[in-house]
């Protein structure tokens, strides 16, 4: 009898690699996991909460000028606040990419089907939701300001994109450093080096070469605190800069993948496209036709009537740059209020309200506007609301009383200063508070300077005393007295003491330095 030994089949060996769809799904699953891990990091949570609080406080500001936001400054205002959050994400993304090395599990990844470069891609993808969160907050802030009835002009998508892109760039850089220099102290040294390099470069750049600052992804030559200007005078290649930052994000991502071993055709093609986009964005930021831009700035500053349009209201003309056309009605309300307290021909005098900007030496820099020598012309700036309203009223009253703005270039040692301030305050709903706000020293006693769009008005202690006395009297009675004695009160020969007598208030006892 023969026996047959059964043959035991060998287990099948599958050598077919996982399908591309499964690999993609695994990468996305790991990216979601890493994104949740980042959310549990205290620095990420703290600085994101701090960023949201700062934006909320800014939106709840009660400054009157916030009711008339200039949108080409609001878009840039969104760029600085995300930087601390970007720094936190940079450090935490770097630590996440180094987690396996820190815990000694890096060797175990060798038995997994997912290649190291795909795990690197997952770390890069994990920072994208945080850039998206910043983009949502930035969009909410800008939309809130843009929907205000007094919003002026328009913003730039390129400027708005800088904040979210800076966060994305920080996270990707953290992952790249983890692949290039896998040590926990590298991010701190990198931040210090970048800061020192930025200081050195900014110190070497001349005014004519400020465009070089655009090559720094997050450090810009932005507004230095001066008044806004029309958008077409800014000369900021925001769209090109957004392309430059986007290309840089893609290029650094590809660099991280290549370092991690991802030398596939797709990665190499993406690297070429990223470098091309970065180069195009960098070249696009180089200034072109600067002579034309400088000529446009000079025209807007020295001959604004050539680039402005005007509307007429009650005999007065209101001329502005196109983006400020919606504020003209507010100017007209102030002019009507001030003119209603004037007497003689001034009550019917038609004025020309002209918007002016200062661009000598650049745009959005601190600089004083010279008083207009044109009779009947009143200057108004590009900021409106808050203290700018009574300051504009001072300019209107000055022209109604003195004929032109340049009468304030010399001290008014006479009744005209008292008359000007009465026109400003006589019909104001809160005259004492307005008087305090419009003075440079925020006081209502003694000598001081009253602010105006151009040259301010100097008040002596005696003139201030007469003005405060007037505010304690019945408004209707004082308005009637001012109109009745308009000729005397607008004469340079009438002293402050004589003005007090004409208006029926006590003559100030203090000596007037104007020489009465």
**What series of H and E elements makes up the topology?**
HHHHHHHHHHHHHEEHEEHHHEEHHHH
Distance between the termini: 147 Å
Approximately how much helix is present in the residues?
Answer: 40-55%
Query: How are the strands of the largest sheet arranged?
Result: 1-2-3-4
Write up this protein.
There is one protein chain. With 516 residues, the chain is mainly alpha-helical. The chain has 21 helices and six strands. It has helices at 20-39, 42-59, 71-77, 83-97, 99-102, 116-126, 128-146, 157-160, 162-180, 186-204, 238-259, 265-284, 290-302, 328-339, 388-402, 416-425, 431-438, 461-471, 475-484, 486-489, 496-503; strands at 309-313, 316-320, 352-355, 377-380, 448-450, 457-459. The longest helix is centred in the middle third of the chain and has 22 residues, at 238-259. The chain is elongated and about 95 Å long.
